């Protein structure tokens, strides 16, 4: 098979099937909405289109019901598993990307009224508190399951980002943004001035 270019959505499909086992598009949609959908936004219609494309490429097998709704169930082929593993091992050169409407509004705030900033900050405080509560409930529900531990690492990153956003909007609402700068000055010595970790990791045995 010639080399094909796979999109992030392709790897979402391959990854979800690798974690969940054989899945219908509806299974994928449910799985995504309770996991990667919290941090990777894309049209869910792709979860109904992309599996067929991956099957044509030999990365998925498909089984179709003989009767009824003739639902399609997809499973990974060895080629699909290899493609997923190569992607996971490849360097991630894309910089962190954030598309936040609240931050966009904040950038243009001087074109509006001062009270808009206060309203924006308080609405964001509410939203980030709600998301933190959702994430914390997931930690409480799944944190004790050893099988879920690898996926809980992503949840910890999500919580760190939500708490960082909550700190910012709370400081903005209270007029204490200068306190955030002082916090960064304290953290700079440990986070920015330490040697960069070895990207190659520990040497493998020959």
Automatic annotation (TrEMBL):
Residues 13-85 form the Transcription regulator PadR N-terminal domain. Residues 98-167 form the Transcription regulator PadR C-terminal domain. Pfam families: PadR, Vir_act_alpha_C. InterPro entries: Tscrpt_reg_PadR_C, Tscrpt_reg_PadR_N, WH-like_DNA-bd_sf, WH_DNA-bd_sf. PANTHER family: NEGATIVE TRANSCRIPTION REGULATOR PADR, TRANSCRIPTIONAL REGULATOR YQJI. This is Transcriptional regulator PadR family protein. It comes from Pseudonocardia dioxanivorans (strain ATCC 55486 / DSM 44775 / JCM 13855 / CB1190).
């Amino acid at each position: 098979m010639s080399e094909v270019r796979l999109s992030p959505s392709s790897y979402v499909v391959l990854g979800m099937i690798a974690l969940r086992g054989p899945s219908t598009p509806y299974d994928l949609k449910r799985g995504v909405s309770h996991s990667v959908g919290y941090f990777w936004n894309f049209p869910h219609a792709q979860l109904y289109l992309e599996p067929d494309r991956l099957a044509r490429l030999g990365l998925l097998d498909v089984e179709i019901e003989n009767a009824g709704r003739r639902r399609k169930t997809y499973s990974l082929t060895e080629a699909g598993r290899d493609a997923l593993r190569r992607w996971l091992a490849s360097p991630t050169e894309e910089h962190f990307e954030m598309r936040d409407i609240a931050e966009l509004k904040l950038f243009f705030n001087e074109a509006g009224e001062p009270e808009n900033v206060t309203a924006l900050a308080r609405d964001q405080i509410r939203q980030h508190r709600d998301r933190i509560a959702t994430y914390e409930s997931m930690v409480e529900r799944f944190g004790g399951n050893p099988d879920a531990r690898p996926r809980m690492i992503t949840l910890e990153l999500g919580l760190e980002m939500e708490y960082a956003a909550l700190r910012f909007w709370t400081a903005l609402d209270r007029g204490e943004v200068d306190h955030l700068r002082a916090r960064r000055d304290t953290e700079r010595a440990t986070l920015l001035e330490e040697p960069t970790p070895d990207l190659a990791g520990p040497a493998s045995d020959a």
